[in-house]
Amino acid sequence: MLKWSDLIPAGASYKDSGINSLDEIGTVGASTLQLRVFIAKASGGRDTRDFPERYPIHLSEDLSTLMHRYKRLYCRGVELLFRDQKIAVGLSDLLAVIDNMPIFPDCGVFSLQYSLEMFRLAFTQRSMAFHNSESSIAQSFRYVKVESDRVSDCVVSSNRVRHTVLTRGAQDGLPAVQLARLTGVTVPAARHYIDLDYTSRRMIDSSYIGNAFLKEAFSSAITEISSEDDPIVDSHFNPVGSPRNSSNCTTCTTNMGRPLGCYGCPNFRPLLEADHRNVLAAAKDKLIINQRSLVNPLHTRSIEKLERQIAWVQLTIDACDETLLRERAINA
Fold first, then answer.
1. Domains of the chain, earliest start first
2. Which domain of life is it from (predicted)?
């Protein structure tokens, strides 16, 4: 049940008795925001806004900019609503009313036929009027497209977001206390993500990716290119595969380009006897160059995608070799 009063600039104060001023987000040298959230399962209060979390959430600069634009659009909608009802309202009164309105409202709020005084009575610091339901917001997550190396039908959820933040934070070397504050979990729970070291985590990821890929590869992915196919070629213009559906390539979102970005794609059919090792060697050379240009050798996030594609090429080579060995054994 978030209201606009819960979203304030970093460096400002909520003046909330439930939040120590020392725990609020100070000025960080950029125009960012902080968000006050509330303990969902707290008992003993009159409503869900009685007990704020101790630490506000600091929003990134990009997210802060997005929320700023959204609020401007929101304010414009409320302003037009008042104007349609011939209600004259100044900027200070408009912002005072919006402060107590929900950040994620039910669309019906923009069809209200209220006077300014009725608006002030309907929307207060504790009012629940026109807040979008939790189930409605959760349902909208299903329309967010997420790509996953492990599953084809990955669904966004609060648990998925929390797990991703904890995993990424642990990879970046954040301490358990900070991870707990970021995600709202206990410190012991956050420590589990740190105890699972980066190498072990990548081995698990590779196993999931490899099993899924090999299952697909041995079913029908490895093929021979017909004259009607649009071949995907390597740097020496030798074909290494073809798309299942050429039209799908027009909406490709990979930034790797052909042929490296094609490996691992469900639309890519690798050519059985192609020189995939040539692609692998070129990718490894590129990785070495990128590793040398890292500002901090401990922060390897920028080369993760390249490392993942190298793993896909290696899996393709393994799958092709296995298929060729089986064919030779049958024909022997």
1. 4-130 (no CATH), 137-195 (1.10.10), 198-331 (no CATH)
2. Bacteria
